[in-house]
Amino acid sequence: MTRPETIVPETPQPPYPIRHKSQIISGFGRGSSELGIPTANIPVHDELNNLPTGIYYGWCKIYPHPQESDTTDKRPDGQDVLFNHGNNLCKTDLSTVWPMVMSIGWNPFYHNKTKAAEIHIINKFSSNFYGADLEYVVLGYIRPELNYTTKEALIKDIELDISIAKDILKREEYAKYEHELE
């Protein structure tokens, strides 16, 4: 399938904005390790599940999850993941509202059996924050979920999605939602 042109309305159109808060869960670990594009996986709640699969854009903010100590969980592949619940993030990481792109779907390149929602926060963090809470607002749709013949093609498209999202979120009617998460 060829990547379709991204058409962005002047303002978010229904069903957007979609605002929610979720705890970050473990995913497959491929975003960071294989693609160099880390993602925060969140549960696919009904509102997200009703959206077409594809790539979305919006804003998000990280909050430490009330937890006394670090815990460990297992990824679907059996690998242990340290959950620090966001307690290692600096104040700037926690006080900033970040632009994001979100993938909702089956990740056909990886042949997933489970639908996933993965948020790439457009920032470089010094540590992971599995188990933290993530408040987000989805403002629109970039493109449908696509399959790729190479990992390089997938990475190139994700980088284009990030660039498109950054440009859209600079527009006044989209930028104002950043302040709703402060």
UniProtKB/TrEMBL annotation:
Pfam families: Flavokinase
UniProt superkingdom: Eukaryota
Biological process terms in GO annotation: FMN biosynthetic process; riboflavin biosynthetic process
EC number, UniProt record: 2.7.1.26
Pathway assignment: Cofactor biosynthesis; FMN biosynthesis; FMN from riboflavin (ATP route): step 1/1
GO cellular component annotations of the record: mitochondrion
Keywords on record: ATP-binding, Flavoprotein, FMN, Nucleotide-binding, Transferase
Domain Riboflavin kinase: 13-170
InterPro entries documented for this protein: Riboflavin_kinase, Riboflavin_kinase_bac/euk, Riboflavin_kinase_dom_sf
GO molecular function, one term: ATP binding
Top enzyme category: transferase
Family listed: Belongs to the flavokinase family.
Function comment: Catalyzes the phosphorylation of riboflavin (vitamin B2) to form flavin mononucleotide (FMN) coenzyme.
Name of the molecule in the record: Riboflavin kinase
Organism: Candida theae
